Amino acid sequence: MISLIGNYGYAALFFCLWLGIVGMPIPDEVIVMSGGIVSSIGILQPIPAFLLTYLGVVSGLSIGYILGRVMGVKVVDRVLAKQKNKHLLRAQHLLEKYNHYALALSYFIPFVRHIVPYLVGINKMSFKRYALYSYTTGFFWTLSYFILGATFGEHIEMIADLAFQYGLWFGILLGIGILTYFLYNKTNTYKRSKQNEKSDLHPDRG
């Protein structure tokens, strides 16, 4: 992945994720984290790298939605036939249990995230509703793994293994961890500003 990015730059991040719908051999989590790694060491600029990564994620999944909506149940026979049956069953169970919220939850379950858009397309979910849940969750999912790659790039294989092994639970813990981190930073920033205000009001007199 690093070699691809070195040769093709931002395009590698976009197209590797965009082509994930046809079964790229590199997990999405690894691709997104790779974008974070190369941004942290200066190979690519962070903001363009993140934006192209995000667009690759949501556009790749949107292909599944469009195919499901246009082709209907034929997609299950022709496109999903190569997927392992357990992933298809899991995606169907997720939709039956959580309805449209399954779009958000499926992001954190490898393989299932690619199947759910097909199924909601087949069920004729409106694009407006699909985009609301899929694109919003996709932004935070991409941001989370992008930050993980930039911060803990040397542990990328271990993180990917945990994501595959624990799926949704890992996603929940990841969300809690990032939220805690930002709240901690915000609290510290607030405390420092208060301390600075006190220092300005009561300057030391030599």
Summarize the structure.
The chain is mostly helical. It has helices at residues 2-8, 10-18, 28-40, 46-71, 74-78, 85-98, 102-106, 112-122, 127-152, 156-201.
Report on this model:
This protein has one domain. The chain is built from 10 helices and no strands. The longest helix is centred in the C-terminal third of the chain and has 46 residues, at about 155-200. Helix 3 (about 30-40) crosses helix 9 and helix 9 (about 125-150) crosses helix 10 (about 155-200). The mean pLDDT is about 80. By secondary structure, the chain is an all-alpha fold. The chain has helices spanning about 1-10, 10-20, 30-40, 45-70, 75-80, 85-100, 100-105, 110-120, 125-150, 155-200.
